[in-house]
Amino acid sequence: MIIEGRYLDEILRKLYSELSQSTDTFHASKGKGQDLLASKVILKDPRARISATATRGRLISALAEFCWYMSGSADLDFIRFYIQDYPPENATGSIEDAYGPRLLGTGEFGRSINQVNQVIERLREKPDTRRAVISLLEPSDLTALRTEAPCTVALQFIHRRNRLHLIAMMRSNDAYLGFPHDVFCFTMIQEFVARALGIKVGEYHHFATSLHLYEADVGRVSRYLDEGFQNPTFAMPRMPNGCQRENLEAFLDVEQCIRRGMISEADKISLPVYWKDLALVLLRHADNKMKRGTIVRGGNFSHISNPFYKNFFVKSPTALSPDGEGSLTQEEFDLGG
Q: What predicted TM-score, i.e. pTM, was given to this entire model?
């Protein structure tokens, strides 16, 4: 089965509709559910990576997970600052199945290869290569000794028609909780790599052996579908041109200071506009978590430059009719030229 769309909500509506009709069922350790086997999802505009709905528009948690990955951290306290019930439920400290050390080779658990940099260099040397692959699943993950294993098998970057396409391969994928975050994080990495190479962002392809919906989330999916069709132009601002490695590192330093309470005022953040806006989104969460009050929250968030982000804090989703979606092609998107 192939499910494609220009923006995430278009895909989610199709995906949840198909899942609700699936006769393939399972009973896993996390509960009963139904799934689609060997499905492929294609997101035409990777910057339209987040839902415009109140139900699924989870910018802070998705952005936090991206920060966790790109910092190379496996520390649960890091991600639980943003997502309190981040699994595994009873785990503490560092977790071996975390993606960060596998992506960046930060030395945790013996991992020392920065696969993101390796992919960029390989594509620079040979743009047509089919070896620009990040491996996340390891043979040892599948042994009986491991209670958890990455759901992502690999990420493959392909340069074709002057665009950088990304293919994610998943052994298992939770359609309600995991899939939207995976799309967000992986397309952010896709855009980051494309900027480093100076080429446009292409399509995002997502393969999942088991793309599933747990029985416990069926009601949540129904509430999401009840919100109606959303704005198809709802895409994140473009990442700046050129290699963003230094800007990303500076942004991650600011994130750490925000999370540790070392930065509590917007005017203390000195970053390029794109990255500062993302930092202010995280500061908004910290302001709420640390109960800094309405005046402080409002004052800090007033510094945000792009109105796109305000949709996630004062939002009234606009429903669209099913026949009013238009017929844009990929060439008409601003995909990073």
A: 0.91
